[in-house]
Amino acid sequence: MTWYLTRRVGQALAVIIGVMILTFILLHMEPGNVARAVLGLKATPARVAIFDDTYGLNKPLYAQFLLYMKQLLQGNLGISYQLQQPVSGLIAQRLPRDALLLGLSTLLALIVGVPTGIYQATHHNQLVDDVTAGTWFTLYSAPDFLEAFLLIALLCVQFHVFQPNFPGGITSVGGVLADWRALVLPVFVLSINSVANFSQYARSTAIQVLASDYIRVARAKGLPRRLVLTRHVLRNSLLPVITLLGLSLPGIVAGAVIAESVFNFPGMGLLFWQSALSHDFPVMLGATLIIGIATVIGNLMADIAYGIMDPRIRHVRN
Amino acid sequence: MRKTRRMAAAAAIVSLATLAAACGSVGAKVGGGGSAVSGKKTRGGVVTIAEVGASPNFIFPYAPSTNSDGYNVNLTMGLWPSLVYSGDGGKSIVNPQESLFSSLTYSHHDSVITMVLKPWKWSDGTAITSRDFTFTYNLLKVNYKNWIDYTQGLFPTDVTKVLTPNAHTVVLDLNRSYNPAFYTDDVLSTIVLLPQHAWDKTSLTGKVGNFDETTAGAKAVYTFLQKQGGDMGTFDSNPLWKVVYGPWKLGTFNSSGYYSWLPNKNYSGPDKPVISEAIWTPFTTDTAEMNTLRSNTSIDLGTLPLNDVHQVGALNSEGYTVADLPTAGVAEIVPNLYNPTNGPMLRQLYIRQVLEYLINRPQIVSKVYAGYADPGNGPVSVLYGKQWDSPLEKAGGPYPYSPAKAIALLKAHGWKVVPGGVSTCAHAGTGTGDCGTGVSAGQPLRFQLLYTSGITSFDQQNAAIQSSEEAAGVKIVLKAEPFNTIVATTATCNASSHPASTCAWQLQDYGYNPYFLDPSGAGLFNTDGYGNYGGYSSPEENRLIDATEYGSSTSAFFAYENYTAQQLPVLWLPDASFLYVYKKNLAGITPWDPFSGTLNPEVWYYTKPGS
Amino acid sequence: MSGTDPVTRVVTANPGPAPGGEVTPRSGGGSLSLAEVLHNRRVISGAALVVLITLFCFAGPLVYHTNQVLVNLNIINEPPGPGHPLGTDQYGIDVLGRLMAGGQSSLELAFAVGIASTVLGALYGAMSGVIGGFGDAILMRIIDTLLAVPTFILLIIVASMYTLSLEAIILILTLLSWPSVARLVRGQVLSLRTREFSQAAEGMGATRRWILIRHMVPNTLGICIVTATFGLADAIYALSALSFLGIGPPPPFTDWGTMLTNGVDNLFNGYWWQVYPPLIALVLVVLAFRQIGDALNDIVSGGQSGAIFQRKRRRFGWVPMSTRYE
Q1: N or C end: fewer C-beta atoms under 10 angstroms in chain B?
Q2: pLDDT profile of chain B (611 residues), mean per 10
Q3: Angle made by CA atoms B542, B548, B550, in degrees to the nearest 5
Q4: Which among A54, A152, A279 is the nearest to B484, CB-wise?
């Protein structure tokens, strides 16, 4: 196991460096002059020159990259061009909030989705299966901003049950939790898509599992239905769900742009999006770094989880 | 997203902070029911203001060249107002009571300014003196290249000498004569005084000295102040920022953009704050703000996206008033006169006239902007600053919507007109009746219009323009891009420089150009002006602009205005007003001062029903 | 896990036809005969709906002529009424006609991206799972890299360098969606390889390609169909997100997603006819496709799953299934 982990960590580092290089190149491929994008209408040649000087943008690409890596190793992620604050500070502020919001919604999706999917599988081809699947796919197909609007229009504007968004000025996770009622709608909206995903994938796998022989044998042996479901079916249906969870980790740190705009929740998604628009390189690189790390960790954990769920996977001959 | 206008608006409202406003008609309320707020004036109360999009990140009033955040002035304006305060009630003039000077005299052919400062005090009790002015001037003189709001050729580089005969008088020798109105309104209004007795040091714990009097010292002080000025975590605790002379001082500030102003008890000016606190609370987008406005009453003052103008009724019933604030600026489509393919065509005045004749501006104003927009008759908005409106503009400008005239013009210049299709040049050449220099035979009348994406009204407006231009066979191809992308990929293209990489654009609509109190065309329509992106160049235009800058007469201004309206250096477009939503019992908000529009809470107060 | 259950091993080691006529399809490629497909009620109903919608979108405009290009500011945002059965949008363009025009783009986009990305991803993932070891590691690390690169920048770069056409968007969206499919399929394949049937196949010397095509692909069909169904919805949604963020194709291009984005802006104003028609159309397509996919999956897998828990009337009366294998 440790040998496996060491190998994977080594590969992870290689991937992250690869991603950084790729992102660096992509960023500099963005058409247009960075200084002009940031300074907007105030860009004059003199100011552009000062800007380029301050941020080393007139050096050759590889030199900029090496400088960035050097600073990175010292723990310095640079200063945001647009927001004029240290990138590490920005991320440290927003990431925990996003993790809370998206973590909660993923958890909710898991708790609701997987049992629903298995339930559907046991009632495959019956009305309840089609109705449930229809509901989830309908909810999934409707864009999240539409669902958010409809919910807000109904629950906040029409009936003042919830407040439509977070009050401005919240900085810490503690602050978010203190106003937990504001979390209800965003968590709900964000979890819809994941519930649909988890449940339908679990259902699909569960259908296959339920058709296999060992389940028949287990039932034949007289094992109660509930135990069959939880001990055998659940475990074996979790495989795609685990993959999805691994794939959702980068999503948790990347934030959700649309939910953040609608619910006044300044998080990584909006930060990322605005920095992409305004050519804010340090922020983009910092965010990419975080997302890269989350991606490799997510997929690594999924791979390890496969091995735990099904020890035979570890020993498959190659 | 709407932030384009927000930023641009902020930039206008902001950096030139003292631009002024509206005229009488601007106080008109939207959605009916707009009478003056009645009731008894009460003291105290907290006003919560919605702040949408970006937020301030710098508190020292002179930001470095790398910081273009237009919202910083929102933060500092109440603490350190400009030397020259623009806007008096609803009138677009300099406000003598709020300004820091008691008299401002121009002499020696308008090249020497004698300024007498009022006997006001800083918040810590020290008197404001001319030493503070020289402190500010010294810092800027050495560091002007690193000041984001420095305008080439103007303060401080246009000052040859500064004298301080006594503690309250400052004499400035300028390098040439300037139009006093222009100089006062547009240049002196960008200056904010800094407290020499508290800020003339190079470290937090160091002692205050006269460091600004040497070049090295001035650099050191400026660098120190800038470093402190960007440290958001200490804005509300740093002793430096507690020395103010405006009606307000900073209450709390947190880096998410949430901050508040508290009354400065030692304010020497006339309008001492009545309310007890002004709070700005950030919203990520105007959608989020709109949702809050509709759901509860936590916002006391906010903006209404134009798209939601039909919500006025609902907002009224929730206890809000809605009022419109005309924008002080001009909206335009900028033609690139040096585009490789279409430059020669666009350089022909008649082509620009054709394009302008085909824009149905009144229809756009009434359908897209629900009537809340300046009609776009020329370089000056007719909705504010009535003293600047020439009769020509008031009458609708030289190019009212007329497809017939457009078609006639094209035919008269040798074009084969194909309404609904693409017109082509039938008679190439330079004689009368020919298409003009550089236009080849068969060249199609096709242009690409690049515009800022993410704003519904822009999409509607430009789609409408695309359709209406077809009446004479002008084919407009639309391309929408985010604002920053447009700014980053396009550059100024003029006769001397038009590199292919940044001059591929043909027509551009990025938003609007904000004006100063004095809406001169300097920088926008003169050759090589910083805002002259399309390369328009005319000696007559330059002469007329100079006449407004260096001379002072209304007829000179009207001459410039009419000539420019007629010459179409850019295509004139309607310019949308801002809609503000505020609590019915919050008084003092109107009449507007569109340059300090929502940044003068010292004149607001809550009313209680009753007499 | 049941892998160590001697009973199971005994049963599945002889994958011959079990008494009662049921062949467990897990042991080999499923059969998919055209006849079966064409006679399945659910496939027919799903396909009929899809065909209907496609006809509506592509043939509709031939019958119902509307202007879809010129903006008419005088009739913007009108509710359904004479001349405009579904009202007009913010450009003054008839919504019903726009629904048809938009449907052409959306259907093309959805099916192309949904199917292409699933096929690409499935092949890649299956290959990776079958190769295993070092090859698998490299292929998966490439996936990691692709997943981590910020797609925003890519989108903005491409959107600003070129005016996005439908084809370009299809290409980009496919490229952005296939990595996750690959991961899903690979996971499934890894688990399948542990099954006895595949180890048996490997033991018998089957080539990787044979295993891949004959065993892995059919058995991952379930996952692939679910993925493709989600992929349809995702593609349409992606375009609406692009316009929400301001980098979608400019007018007069339209599709259901863009209609939704523009319509949602007007939700507070009460212009329901701009929101619900495209939404309903979109949902119907996704549901119809899901119906077809689910039915296909059943056909391939023999369709008896879950039967163990179902109490259906059978030929021999009310008998729990489990007793059939005593």
Answers
A1: C
A2: 31 26 30 52 89 87 87 89 81 82 90 93 93 94 90 87 92 88 85 93 91 92 93 91 94 88 92 92 86 86 84 88 86 93 92 95 91 90 81 91 94 92 90 88 93 85 93 91 83 87 89 79 84 90 86 82 94 91 88 71 85 48
A3: 95
A4: A279
Is the CB of residue B329 less than 8 Å from the CB of residue B514? yes
CA–CA separation, C229 vs A128, rounded Å?
19
For residue A276, the distance in angstroms to the closest alpha carbon of chain C comes to 6
d(CA C278, CA C259): 7
Please state the separation of Cα B466 from the chain's center in Å.
28
pLDDT per residue over C172-194, tens digit each? 889 888 998 999 999 888 888 87
Quote the tokens at residue B313. 């009724």
At B146, list the tokens: 């690193």
Any chain C CB within 8 A of the CB of B63? no
Helices within chain C (DSSP H only): 6-13, 34-39, 41-58, 60-63, 95-131, 133-148, 151-161, 166-193, 196-203, 208-210, 217-219, 221-245, 256-265, 276-301
CA-based nearest residue in chain C for residue A154: C268
CA A26 distance to own-chain centroid: 22
CA distance C69 to chain A (A): 26
Alpha carbon distance, N-terminus to C-terminus of chain A: 17
Q: Are B222 and B139 in contact (CB under 8 A)?
A: yes
Q: Minimal Cα distance from B147: which residue of A?
A: A47
What is d(CA B73, CA B70) in angstroms, rounded to the nearest whole number? 7
* Cβ-proximal residues to A193 (8 Å cutoff; 6+ apart), any chain: A109, A140, A144
As given in the structure block, the two tokens for residue B591 are 């009449």
Residue B35's pLDDT is: 43
B477 Cα to chain C: minimum distance (Å): 9
- Taking the Cβ of residue A284 and every Cβ of chain C, the question of whether any pair is shorter than 8 Å is answered with yes
CA distance A93 to A80: 14
Q: Is B300 strand, coil or helix? A: coil
Task: Show residues of chain B in contact with C70, CB under 8 Å.
Answer: 467, 470
Give the ipTM: 0.84
B487 to A43: CB separation less than 8 angstroms, yes or no: yes
Contacts of C221 (CB under 8 A, 6+ apart): C30, C296, C297, C300, C301
Nearest to B457 by CA among B581, B372, B356: B372
Q: Is B294 on the interface with C (CB under 8 A)?
A: yes
Whether residue C116 lies within 8 A of chain A, CB to CB, comes out as no
Nearest neighbour of A239 by CB, restricted to C5, C160, C188? C188
Contact list in C for residue B485 (CB cut-off 8 A) is 156, 160
- Cβ count within 10 A of residue B387: 10
Q: Residue C25: is the preceding peptide bond cis (ω within 30°)?
A: no
pLDDT at B450: 92
Specify the pairing of strand B446-452 against strand B475-481. parallel
Q: How many CB pairs under 8 A join A and C?
A: 251
Please tell me which chains touch B, using 3 or more CB pairs under 8 Å as the contact test. A, C
- A131-159 CB burial, b ≥16 within 10 A, e <16: ebbeebbbbbbbbbbbbbbebbbebbbee
Q: Coil, helix or strand for B447?
A: strand
How far apart CA B465 and CA B451 sit, in angstroms, is 12
| Predicted local distance difference test score (pLDDT) of residue A254 | 80
Whether residue B506 contacts residue B498, with contact meaning beta carbons closer than 8 Å, is answered with no
Whose CA is closest to B597, among B370, B381, B302? B302
Q: C15 CB near a chain A CB, below 8 Å? A: no
**A302 to chain B, minimum CA–CA distance in Å?**
34
State which residue of chain A sits closest to B294, comparing Cα positions.
A157
